[in-house]
Amino acid sequence: MSAAQATAPVSLRPAYRTQAAAQTLTVRVYRTLDELKAIRSDWEQLLAAYPLASTFSTWEWLSCWWRHFARHRKLLVLGLFNSSDMLVGLAPFAVSSENYGGVRTLRVLRLMGDGSLDSDNLDMPVLPGFEILFAESVLRHLKILRAEWDICELNTLPPISPAASLIAHRCQSEGWTFFEDTRTCSAISLPKTWPAYLASLTSEDRNNVKRYRHRLESRYRVRLSRCSREDEIDEYLNALFSLHQGRWESTGQPGSFASGERRGFYRDLSASLLSRSWLELWGLKVDEQLCAVQFAFRYGDRVYQLQEGYDHTRRSDRLGLVLRSEVLHKLIEENVTVYDFLGGADKYKARWGAETGHYRTLLFALPFTAGSSVLWIVRKAVGGKVWLRQHMPSAAWKQLKHIAHAVGV
Question: If exposure means fewest CB atoms within 10 Å of the residue's CB, which of 113, 293, 307, 369 is most exposed?
Answer without folding.
Answer: 307
